[in-house]
Amino acid sequence: MRKPHSIEILSSLAILSIIVFLSAASSLIYISVFFIFSLFVLVYSSDLFFDNAVPMFRSVGIGDMYAGTIFVGLASVLDEIALSVSSLVFRHPEIGMGAVEGSNLITMIFFTVIMAVSYLRVVRIFTVDMIMIVMLTTISIIFAEIFVSVPWYGSIVLFIPFIIYLIIKMRSNIVSDHDARGYSKISLVVSFFLIFISSDVLVRSTLGIAAYTGISIVDLSAYGIGIISSLPEVIMILVSLMGGKKIVSMGIFTGSTIYKMSLIPAFIVAAEPTGFSDLIYMLLAILCMSLFVLALSIISGRRWSRVHKS
Q: Is residue 236 one of the residues assigned to a domain?
């Protein structure tokens, strides 16, 4: 657990960061300082959330894989959810869609690079997850080729695979041994809130910086905001990996990616006409990397089976 006053410190940082943003948003220097400050809050709040979330789920019999994919994975995409809602309110759905796919690309690159070193022994457990990611990416590519703006019923096509995935995960929950470590409900709630706030203000500060630099809205959302909004997933993956919880770590990666490939795009498409046509090359890169990870998971599963049979 963190130091006794960590909650008060993090809460003060979050409140102060909001005040700085509202009072000094007209200055590029202040916006840049605000960006770094919010990033600091995000790092520590993500770490704090993870430290309390995993033992909480274990205490009620929820396994590491299910906790990582469904619950912690959901927390790590709160910023994308908030951004998607904001983009629809301001009637710029391409911002939400671009940020989601940009975040997916960054997370996939990060994960693919470190997977060969750290995850080969557990990747076989997530074969179904990788199949689902490949399927959802393929659907998005098909939509990008056929539609400029995906019709509302396209949201159903994206939503159904997630329901199937959720059912499979619920049936295959691997229950962990009881975790003797305690956890703080207050820390869990506060860190959950801080992840949302710090991620949202990071995106806002990025928009402020872009206003000074003249970056286009499509490039900004995909390659600017997408990088920033991928930070919660990357940080949580690293925190769990350094803590020796590889199953939780990969669960966060697969769970957050599936959320961002299914539920969030489905929500955007259903609410406002938009599409994937400007993101085709990004989607193709994601597909290539996800196929690579899927191939390694299949190979790892076969090796594991041969070892146990012998």
A: yes
